[in-house]
Amino acid sequence: MSDRGTQSAGTRTGRRLGRVGAVLLLVAALAAVFAPLLAAHDPSAPSGAPYQPPSLSFPLGTDDIGHDLFAQLVYGARISLTIGVASAVLATAIGLAVAVVAGYFRGRVEGPLMRLVDLTLAFPFFVLVIVLAAFFGRSLLITVGVISAVLWAKPARVLYSDVVKVREFQHVTAARAMGASPLRVLGRHVIPRLAPLAVSQFVRTANVAVFLESALAFLGLGDPTNVSWGSMLFFANARSAFLTDVWLWWIVPPGLALTAVLVGFAFLGYAIEERADPRLSGRRARPGPRRRDAGSTAAEPATPQATGTVLEVRELTVRYRSEAHATEAVAGVSMAVAPGRIVGLVGESGSGKSTLALALLGLLRPPAEVLGGRIMLGGRDLRTLRGPEGARIRGREIALVPQGAMSALNPAYTVQRQVTEAAALTRPDAAAAAVRARELLEQVGIARDRHGAFPHELSGGMRQRVLIAMAVANEPRVIVADEPATGLDVVTQARIMKLLLDLRERLGVSVVLISHDLPLVARTADELLVMQAGRIVETGPPEAVAREPQHPHTRALLTASAGIRAASPAPRPVRGR
């Protein structure tokens, strides 16, 4: 059988199991809801003679006191399912909150929270439940609290790894770069992505919670004032039901009901996991906690921004640290961008260009750490801005056009919705943001009949235009365009460069244009910076740099980008790192 056939057969099996599980749970839920209509007697009061066999009046007979066992069975479904579902809701909510705080916000809270998760998971959960229940007492609320206090750690562990991964998706990074607040990013991009896995964890947690409630009640640690399936088994065992024939209708029905609910939750959880996005099931190693910047600007004396500049970078140093070694991806870089100017930053892959771009917007993540330097924008050092204050700068005063438009756009939303989301950061209402989005899409060359398209329905050049529209939605002072034309054909590259020039002229925005294609940038930029191994090795007007390059690396870049009519010289290595 082919892989596709095997996958289809597995999918059909999962759907069948899901339907079976849903039916089993639906029957139990209906019995709990309509218990007053199904049962003719009070489950807590004697209603017949002891040990009556099943009859029309008592479908499951009576116990040794005369309680209607059928009434106890259907009313017991209420308690068992209510405690199980309530405990699962609370445990999953706590686990999701811990996963989001530790996986998205990271920083100092990540380590302690995940160590608490590990510690909770290290204890035998059943023993822990028994100890807590015996200590705190017996009631419905205490039972829910005790079960939730033990079960929250598993959803937290599973969801945490996926929060870490979803956080690094390019469309999430792009949303942060556009200035979206953490709550907005979580609500629009992270939580919806986690929803299938969170529902699956809820179902599996409910499965365990129903079992734990029944186990506690069977051990005599449940609420003595309410009847549940576990308490039915407790009293049957305590009153020696196995010594008489009454065990057939006293023990077997609640045991079968409990088994059916547990199987139903298991089958439904399996089906939900199968339907969830398979990319959410992958694990990735968790980076270490965020390090405090070694060269914190808090201790450095404040110096004014140079006149005639909209963005100024001074001696910026960024290091990537691993257990084996540390590498300076950006080593003492300084640059200045004047209003309405395009500064081109070129270099080979791995030279530190993208690291510099992310540092400008405060989007670096571990294991990257900024060791020192300043990033001045409008008289403020962007390195000193944290949390909501930094988010208000991104997208409004400095914006990013990330590389890889297909990855940077959310595949689940139309392009107009995504541009509207960016424009909504500075618009009073949704209608104004939608109008702004339509205007922007038309300005960057997207026809009105394509505004409702999804990213996969557009060409690479059109997707890149959408990213540019999102970047200029809130009229920033500086746009950082990281490889905006990479992977596009030469005609589309020329159109994207022309679009950037038009926006510069129309909006007066400054652009930091990052690329590995020196001739392409030289035709567009007002100033050219060549980067190698984390350092700026040559600067100057593009014409002068292209005509008389001073550094060997610049000459190598020009040679590598020779035109199709030029002779192809043999490659020459460049000394150094």
Strand percentage: 5-15%
Instruction: Provide the spatial order of strands within the biggest beta sheet.
Output: 6-7-8-3-9-10
- The total count of helices amounts to 22
- Measured between the Cα atoms of the first and last residue, the distance is 51 Å
Give the CATH architecture of the domain at 28-42 and 59-281: Orthogonal Bundle
CATH level 1 class label of the domain at 28-42 and 59-281: Mainly Alpha
Give the C-alpha Rg: 32 Å
How many beta-strand segments? 10
CATH topology of the domain at 28-42 and 59-281: MetI-like fold
- Identify the CATH homologous superfamily of the domain at 28-42 and 59-281: MetI-like
The largest β sheet comes out as:
6 strands, mixed
Which structural class matches the secondary elements?
alpha/beta
Note poorly predicted spans: 1-8, 277-301
Work out the helicity level. Answer: 40-55%
- The chain-level mean pLDDT equals 82
Give a brief rundown of this model:
With 577 residues, the protein is of the alpha/beta class.
Structure description:
By secondary structure, the chain is of the alpha/beta class. Among the domains are: 238 residues, MetI-like fold; 68 residues. Helix content is 52%, strand content 12%. It has a 6-stranded mixed sheet with strand order 6-7-8-3-9-10, with helices on both faces. The longest helix is centred in the N-terminal third of the chain and has 37 residues. It is elongated. It starts with a helix and ends in a 17-residue tail after the last helix.
